[in-house]
Design goal:
The complex is a heterotrimer of chains A (351), B (152) and C (376). By secondary structure, chain A is mostly helical. Chain A has 14 helices and two strands. Classes of the chains: A mainly alpha (351), B alpha/beta (152), C alpha+beta (376).
Amino acid sequence: MVIYDDIMYWLVLIFAESHPYSDWIRGILGGLVIGAVFGGALVMVYLERKFLGDIQSRIGPNRVGGRYGVLQLIADAIKLFTKEDIIPANADKWLFIGAPIVALTSGFLMVAVLPFDYLLINGSYYAVNVTRMDISILYLEAVSGLAVFAIFMAGWGSGSKYSMLGGFRNIAKMIGYEIPLGVSIISVAIMAQSLDIVEIVEAQDFLWNIMIHPLAFIVFGICLVADVGRIPFDQTESEEEIIAGWATEYSGMRWGLAFFAEYLHAVVGSFMVALIFLGGWNGLPIVGNLYIPGIFWLIIKTIMVIMFFIWTRGALPRYRIDQVVDLGWKCLLPLSLLCLVWSTIIGLVFG
Amino acid sequence: MATDKTIMVELTDAFSDAISDVDVPSANRAEARIDSSKVTEIMQFLRDKGFDHLSCISGVDYPPDKMEVVYHVTSYSAPLVITLKATLPRDDPNIDSLCDIYWNANWYERETWEMFGIVFNDCPYLKVLILPEEMDGEWPMRRDYAGYPNAT
Amino acid sequence: MTHENTQITSPPSPSEILLHLGPQHPLQPGPFLLDLKIDGETIREAELKIGYIHKGMEKVFEDRTYIQIMPLTDRICYLASNANNDVYCRAVEELLGIEPTPRAKYLRVIANELNRIQSHLLGIGEYTTDVGFLTMFIYMVRERESIVSLLEAITGSRLNHNYARFGGVANDLPPNYKSMALKTLGEIGKLVKSHDEMMSSDSIYLKRTKGVGVLTDKVASELGVAGPPLRATGVEYDLRRIEPYLVYDDLDFKVITQQDGDVFSRVKVRLLEIQESIYIIEQCLDQIPSGPYKQHVTPYITRPKVGEVYTRIEDPRGELGMYLVSDGSNKPYRFRIRGPAFATAQALPPLLIGTYMADVAAIAASMDSCTSEVDR
């Protein structure tokens, strides 16, 4: 791991505020990280196809790129790029075009504050991330809320009744779920006494938050599944009810982008779960890192969360929209308030 | 509740002037020819006697002068199927609707109307069901239908 | 039950949307147009328009000889093709005044019940996708595959069997069929049981299905439906029991009923009927007599005497009837198909009123309608 430490050492030198090219380097790092998360979303799509295939006793992609079908996604992307780009006649053109862009942007903006590792060099700690923000948790929540607008833009701008129903459903759902999502994060932030995601991870070096605060994990997990719109909560694009919901009128790469933005959100959401509740780069609880670099721990944990997402899709039917809203307001909101009480108690006793 | 063959005797007794050609070919089948003007009364009688399931309504065309509407009435608790036939004049076929007695008569009547041109008086929403609207009035199931050239 | 609830009577008010669900929609097994007037997510009025794949079969059959019609009856509903064969064949047999041989009767029952199993499996599968349970669909199709293979071994084809013949059947059982069938059916029985448990123990599934689209026994019989939707309300109406045909008299089976009449019970009835059909087939394979499987002499040209007949059969979807009028020629004078899906499709709009958009998929699929047969 000497090479790894060397690279990190130089990166950290550059990250230091004093360095004249710090902003440029961070910009390049941002590009790299976006690429990496993009790649992560690709991996997730592939994993989903294979793993879901396993659950459903199918093989999954097995033709393009050898018997494991690793190049299937490339083939799909080529197909999407070469398809005709249709904008419906009665669509609101700018909203229609803008929606996938906003959705992707929201995903990319979230990436900006995600820390990937934490390095101890010359006695000081440096988080490897694009931007260090002392309110990064609030920022993450705010930016992820942009995706709701994207979906409503698509739903309204498509000029189709099915799309509009999808957009309505999304708004109805997300109003109910953003609140418990926010409150459960805040309850964790209270325990760490910081709104900075780096410090929240740092506070988990001995015990993960999932052990101290399992309730917040459950609330956050459910809300996150709803937030990224995966299967028990995919009412916005439930095929048998409203065709593809807000994405009904999209075709070609525009649809591809909108679809991909969802996966991007899922990947970033998985990172958030791994960082906030599963200890981030801190390895295992109590025993620590076991000489494996933190970033690998983080990636392993993220992949586990992603697998959980895929598993729920294979194992559960879909809620009805009124049941979803009921669950959000009548069950998750009180639970999230309970989270707040619990973390206040913890804070008072141990803080 | 007489849902066996004795119903035919009761039916003949009750509507002696409107029923003819009563026949009971087998244990589970009975048939009769009815007067088309009495169809609602007869059906109401059958329904009251426990024949609560209208299985089917069919039209049969006998050119040049007559048409038949065939009702298959049965019960949810007995195997007897009563076949009732009403003969109509072919130039002006019309018969009372059964929709108020059997709810599911609606679609059968609409189908028979669009295929044969048999008008069911008081049938709610008597409009084309299966055929496209431009074929309204073609009566394609009549025996002398010559086809629908160059119009579809 | 009035007739107003089958129609959209007024244009939508400013708070309502008129939604055309179809003719092409992922929920549908075939093309039909379901017009819904919705207020938010609640359905105010519904109207069903059919006829998008009208094939004019009744007219076509008037121009075909009796034996030519046999393979065409498969196409009435491809999932219940054997039931269609069988009821047509019994109608012509009754007109001709012949009886199938004893072995042929058992063979037809076996084919019918296999057909029922595969139709139910696919019906449940389609339904589970409509509540978002994609995995179960693929399990059901996987199970159906082996049933279809069993059917293929008897009839020679997988979907359109064309199996019944006047007075007999087309093929005898292949060698070693009994052991093969018993093994497969035993496995399928166990798998379907475990799927049943998996579905009934899933709380989201229960939430989606319990108390949704409730038909009471009174309303169901008023609407004229038959088959699993009616039996789910507690009415023991099964033509195999009420009007036993072929050898159902000699077989031991229960008429499956459920009491609630909701979406859950309709699917439960199908799941339990699969087990019952397996039991029937096992009995048939035990009791089947040896002997000829078709009539010794089959007339080359079938010319029934003048007359008419109405035969009924318990199709996987309900009561399938055929009304055949013969004028003594080699072609039927009038051929009327009373499809079970036609009856259940007619009952769909009143069921939808007052439910949510998402329940449309669940209710429509739980009625297991077959558009091909609705339109004929």
